[in-house]
Amino acid sequence: MALEEAVLPLALVEALPIARAMRESLWLYPIVEVVHLLGLAVLVGGVVLFDLRVLGVSKRLPVGALACHLLPWSLAALLLIVPSGLLMFSAHASEFIANRVFLLKMSLLMAAGINALMFHLGPFRQAAAWDTDVPAPGLARLHAGASILIWIAIVACGRLLAYT
User: Fold this and answer.
1) Quick one: DSSP state of residue 20?
2) Which terminus of the chain is less hemmed in, N or C, by CB atoms within 10 Å?
3) In the 8-state DSSP scheme, what is residue 127?
4) Which of 136, 97, 83, 73 is nearest to 10 (CA)?
5) Which whole number is the average pLDDT over 149-164?
6) Model confidence band, residue 9 (pLDDT cutoffs 50, 70, 90)
7) Which of these, 147, 151, 76, 155, lies nearest to 118 by C-alpha position?
8) Using one digit for the tens of pLDDT, what is the confidence trace for 72-98?
């Protein structure tokens, strides 16, 4: 596929009325960015609190109850993050897709999702055995530690996008 063919769909995305509005409005892009950051704060805050619990912080908090409490907040945060992220992407799609930091951020998001899926399909299935006052198994702690590091890198990439 020629580069022009690959770029054409991005040009179509950038030509959408909402993408033009994102570029031309004084307030729309910053407002959408604030919504994106609020969603990110709720999602990453919940993920890190849960991961810290799995790593052994606040062992009296039941892992299962904490997961049940944080999951709806995480899903609500995704309802803020995904549409706002798509709107910001639409405004500068060709610039973002050529930016290595953006590609790294997307790769890290995929890694975070895979890590979370592996955790839930693996060690979390036996969470009742280490729900309170018992250390989580090593594999669960490995997933939690990786999750925290991945999310820190995602946040850093998001901030670096403004400077690259």
Assistant:
1) H
2) N
3) G
4) 97
5) 95
6) confident
7) 147
8) 999 999 999 999 999 999 999 999 999
